[in-house]
C-alpha cells in the first residue's frame, strides 16, 4: 500500500501521528487546547458584536427627533458603555 504524501502546513495547526494512538492525558490536553481556542474565538466575536452595537446605538442617540426621547437616552448610555466593556473583555481574554 502506498503511503500518502504529507505537506507541512504553517500556522497553529498540529500534525498528529495517527499510527500511534493518543494516551488519555494527551487527548485531554488536546481537547482542552481546542476548547480554549474556541472560547477565545467566541469572546472575540462577542466583542466585535458589542462594538457594532455601540456604533448603532450612537447613531440612534444622534438621530434627533426621528427617535423617541427615551430611546435616544438609552442608546446614548449604551454607546458610552459598550465600547469600554468590549475593550475590558478583550483585555481579560488576551491575558490567558
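^ Assign residues to that structure.
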Amino acid at each position: 500500500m502506498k503511503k500518502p504524501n504529507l505537506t507541512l502546513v504553517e500556522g497553529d495547526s498540529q500534525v498528529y501521528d495517527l499510527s500511534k494512538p493518543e494516551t488519555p492525558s494527551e487527548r485531554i490536553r488536546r481537547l482542552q487546547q481546542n476548547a480554549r481556542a474556541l472560547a477565545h474565538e467566541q469572546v472575540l466575536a462577542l466583542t466585535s458584536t458589542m462594538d457594532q452595537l455601540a456604533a448603532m446605538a450612537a447613531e440612534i442617540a444622534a438621530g434627533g427627533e426621528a427617535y423617541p426621547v427615551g430611546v435616544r437616552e438609552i442608546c446614548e448610555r449604551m454607546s458610552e458603555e459598550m465600547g469600554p466593556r468590549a475593550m475590558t473583555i478583550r483585555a481579560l481574554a488576551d491575558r490567558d
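The chain has a mean pLDDT of 88.
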